[in-house]
Amino acid sequence: MSYFDAASSLPLHPVAQQALLAALDEGWADPARPHREGRRARMLLDAARETAAEAVGCRPDELWFTSSGTRALHTGIAGALAGRRRVGRQLVLSAVEHSAVLHAAAAHERAGGSVCEVGVDRTGRVNAREYGEALDPGSALACLQSANHEVGTVQPVTETAAVCAEAGVPLLVDAAQSLPWEAPPEGWSLLTASAHKWGGPSGVGLLAVRKGVRFAAPEPADERESGRAPGFENVPAIVAAAASLRAVRAEAGAEAARLRALVDRIRERVPELVPDTEVVGDPVRRLPHLVTFSCLYVDGEAVLQALDAAGFSVSSGSSCTSSTLTPSHVLRAMGVLSEGNVRVSLPPGVDEAEVNRFLSALPGVVDGVRAHVGAASLGSSAPAAGASSAPAEPTGSPAAPEPAEPAASALTVDALGKKCPVPVIELAKVIERVPVGGVVTVLADDVAARLDIPAWCEMTGHAFVDASGDAFRVRRVAASG
Amino acid sequence: MSYFDAASSLPLHPVAQQALLAALDEGWADPARPHREGRRARMLLDAARETAAEAVGCRPDELWFTSSGTRALHTGIAGALAGRRRVGRQLVLSAVEHSAVLHAAAAHERAGGSVCEVGVDRTGRVNAREYGEALDPGSALACLQSANHEVGTVQPVTETAAVCAEAGVPLLVDAAQSLPWEAPPEGWSLLTASAHKWGGPSGVGLLAVRKGVRFAAPEPADERESGRAPGFENVPAIVAAAASLRAVRAEAGAEAARLRALVDRIRERVPELVPDTEVVGDPVRRLPHLVTFSCLYVDGEAVLQALDAAGFSVSSGSSCTSSTLTPSHVLRAMGVLSEGNVRVSLPPGVDEAEVNRFLSALPGVVDGVRAHVGAASLGSSAPAAGASSAPAEPTGSPAAPEPAEPAASALTVDALGKKCPVPVIELAKVIERVPVGGVVTVLADDVAARLDIPAWCEMTGHAFVDASGDAFRVRRVAASG
């Protein structure tokens, strides 16, 4: 098995395991107690705080341990908003933040606050100037991830911090994905992270709040972690988390360079090996270990299952793999294809041979899924198709709504009730029957279609005319190749 | 070292350690992911839920894992209050609940809700009928611990559940102290507990909510734990917690009987060995492993330190050992002495010889502290003094406010600004100079004095006349012995 879902969670780092076992022996008592066992736990907790603060680049008394990265975000956002309530109630965030940030924003909105979402470009990157324009005198807090968890794009934190500082708005940086790799850029007011992303145990998040930042911890609170994280401190896990962070950082430089080269290979080879595939995210300003691509005419769940059967564990932002049945909000914000989405995030120490094995297996896996949904021959139907060359015959399969040749201008594909990737497959099947310059209307009520039909046009070179309700109009463009 | 603070936290049970190590290998992935590692984590999580549900006595789909017992209480209380907001906003609880409940109640009050506290008797026990009288049509939730964490008194949960059911008010039972020993009594609507109290790892709480109980999880929420505990599930710790709960329950019957006998010995011997000591809490309806007593004329912190130096780790509810400088709210609600308070909670497997060693060491420890504060000879100044016999001479120390014999009716001890146990010591020193039937006024602004001066009167047989502001009046009673 090759586990390529490092951005989701990692097995315990050997250093973390050692530290955990030692701290389970020495640090199980209540660090608030004055007795010997309590004092020992307190010393371990203090030492872990020093270590973590050094990795974050803050003072130990600016850093608190929470029960998860999610909790750190929820507490950080609520605390900063409450601390600046007199200033205003606007929360500014990028459209591609982690769902924990979006949940906190939704809660803030339901409680009467306002939320301003800053869009991203097609690589998933915010523009610091645009971010600055979203700030206003009522902005209480700004949030920006250091790097995106789904597509790996690194955000312009330093530049955004500068515009926030100019506007006098504190910036919370969600450093969950980047903290294992490097110290966060300067300029943050609050910072969060999660230990199981760097080989620490789950159950440990970090919340750092710079001195001077107004903060009112959400209630109920207690005396633990200076009132910012109620409940018995999980000292053994905290000790393991801090030890692990120091260990992975010591290896981060060399390992980042190695994984960066492997990811470059994936970014380059996948579009060559698998036709009609789009690699998304910034190719350069990105996390070292993460790459995401989407494949036309397949559903993400089937690809995941087939990769799983072939021995590869990956993740997907396709709608069919989520409980909400909507595509990842990150892919939506980027305006890129969501169907057949695959995120590969390499764990530290991954073998180069594993990556090569993945590249060998992927084409067969995607072909197999495409064949299963009757889309095997669609790969070359595009006017500007890349690797494959022979124009496909119209399949005339029962999925095409009109077996007889219709009036070109009236051609309509009824994919209502059909889920991703069916609407796009049906569009691809019918496009050959549309005269060049003619328009086909696709009726589709699947949420993913709003993303995938324009993305299909972008990838195949046909022209997306417009969308109105559940009707999407596409004009056939002459083959350019 | 003898660790006698089991009610605070326990080292990891060997079964928990084994389960944790196995689950760190097998259950580190995200249980929400469909890949192999994710499915394995999900299976472990499901199995742990089955195990925990069996120990709690509920269905697996009625039980969620939180990041701590405190978090389970905060979420349970907020969720139940929100779920029944249309009914009303009153929260009913006993005066001796865990501080996490009191913090949740305070937050509820600050948010505009109302809180009704039900008092307890001198053993710390609520009366179910009185509890029922506190319920009204606007009661949204009632809270009652299964047993008290400071004095061990078991609460009448079944009877209270019956009055709550009659009033149609859901009852949340905080089972943190009793769950390791036995399945909770029937009748609860919500139930909470904490794994590190039974030798599981810290970082795991339980929240059970019966089907049909209205519950609206506090925001922000996510899809984890059915929306009731946001953030990445801590699967390895949850697995260890469940395994440990099953293991301690298998041993609980025999171990409870053994510890009960050891605690009985402490309850019996301490007042014999240490004069002017009161054992508090219900002597029969109590946790098997826990006993609390208070010693006149000493401060709890000094006793804790001296016991720590002698190799015993215990806890205290005295004001001088808490960050708030007020005595434990439990002792206050019971109206018992708070000075020199010592809680002994025996860990499973404790050696009988350790308990005997403690009983041998305790008198010397308390004597040493009393001598240090100049209270060594006060033990027999009481009219109804027990073990010690010779009447003490007035010490005439500088602490006594009036070296010359004052007019009896005007005798005043000025202990303003003095902290526990000084006001009581000064009272004990001066009482010999008060004629029988005469009154002494103690001026004391330490919060503990409100509790300890009446308790001193109760213990020594003198009459507490009244308190007015910082002035406490005490009438000397003739020696009865």
Automatic annotation (TrEMBL), chains A, B:
Protein species of origin: Streptomyces iconiensis
A single MF term (Gene Ontology): transaminase activity
Region (Disordered): 381-406
Compositional bias segments (type: Low complexity): 381-399
A Pfam short name: TusA
Signal peptide (UniProt feature, chain positions): none
Keyword tags: Aminotransferase, Transferase
Statement: the UniProt record of this protein carries the keyword Transferase: yes
Protein name (database record): Aminotransferase class V-fold PLP-dependent enzyme
Domain UPF0033: 413-437
Family, similarity comment: Belongs to the class-V pyridoxal-phosphate-dependent aminotransferase family. NifS/IscS subfamily.
Catalytic activity field: (sulfur carrier)-H + L-cysteine = (sulfur carrier)-SH + L-alanine
Cofactor(s) this protein requires: pyridoxal 5'-phosphate
CDD domains referenced in this protein's UniProt entry, alphabetically: SirA_YedF_YeeD
